[in-house]
Amino acid sequence: MSPASQLAAGRVPAAGGGPVPAGHPHGVRATARIRAAHNGRVTTLPQLHSDGPFHLRRVRTDGPAATVGIIGAMSAPLGGDRLTLDITAEDRAELEVTTAAATLALRGPTTDPATYDVRLTAGEHAHLRWLPQPLISAAGSNLRQTYTVELAASSRLVLREEQLLGRADEEPGHLVSRILVHRAGRPLLDQQTAYGVPEPGWDGPAVLNEHRVTGQLLLVDPRLDVRRDPVLLGKGTKEGCAILAPLAGGPALLATAVAPTTSTLRELLDEAHAHALAR
């Protein structure tokens, strides 16, 4: 049994539905790794290393791309956990990574924040898609999530994040999320959002306007036409809306959305994606 498995031995499995036990006071340390390579015909997966709550499975596809699904093997992240996903698409590889279910951030046995670091690297002419299910910030949780992205000049990226702030009829926990992207060694995006107590004004009209679902879609592609003004999508602020805008540092578009439900948020981000690819 790995050290991460030993630390998590007392936890309820993610699908168990029972209360979260005391667990280990210092939390779980786990790093899962995915490495995709192109062999001249198709994308292969020379490294698929599961660890802690991350159980990695290759999903069968018909085309040359590779798809990996992440299945939660235990309740995570809890307070004090240190979780990392290290994902690399080497030159000319085409990789999509998804999750089988939503990620649920819960209160842990310690008041220390949990950290969830996603590291994405794409080589020359690689295409990397990070398309997880939503992250749910449950009451009492404390999570720091970070995306660190390194892109080559000719690589392509689709990064979608969706956040549900609190379950039904409950306040959210404290959630801080940062996206840091470099392209060809130069900064492209460095953005941080923070929700829940003690953040001031996080659900006010200037931020979420009392919505409890928010998300972003980042597209980086040398083929994108980014010579455009920002576009407002959706039916209005009460029903949810999104704005699609170009980034100054490269061929990239960023959509940011707020919505009353996760299904509405997904529709807004899908609409932004279609609009971005329209010629």
Short description:
The chain is mainly β and 279 residues long. Helix content is 8%, strand content 48%. The chain contains 2 helices and 18 strands.
What does this structure look like?
With 279 residues, this protein is mainly beta. It has a domain at 3-11 and 24-208. Helices cover 8% and strands 48% of the residues. Strands 3, 4, 6, 7, 9, 10, 12, 15, 16, 17 and 18 form an 11-stranded mixed sheet that branches. Strands 2-1-5-8-11-13-14 form a 7-stranded mixed sheet. The longest helix is centred in the last third of the chain and has 16 residues, at 262-277.
Q: What is the H-and-E element order?
A: HEEEEEEEEEEEEEEEEEEH
Decide which structural class fits the backbone: mainly beta
Beta-strand content bin: over 45%
Q: How large is the count of helical segments?
A: 2
Biggest sheet, in brief? 11 strands, mixed
Q: Between the first and last Cα atoms, what is the distance in angstroms?
A: 53 Å
On the 0 to 100 scale, the average pLDDT is: 89
Q: Tell me the total number of β-strands.
A: 18
Question: How are the SSEs ordered, and which strands pair?
Answer:
Layout: H1 3-7, E1 29-38, E2 43-49, E3 54-59, E4 66-72, E5 82-89, E6 94-99, E7 103-105, E8 114-122, E9 127-131, E10 135-137, E11 142-151, E12 156-165, E13 174-183, E14 186-195, E15 213-220, E16 231-236, E17 240-246, E18 252-259, H2 262-277
Parallel strand pairs: 1-5, 4-6, 5-8, 6-9, 7-10, 8-11, 9-12, 10-12, 11-13
Antiparallel strand pairs: 1-2, 3-4, 12-15, 13-14, 15-18, 16-17, 17-18
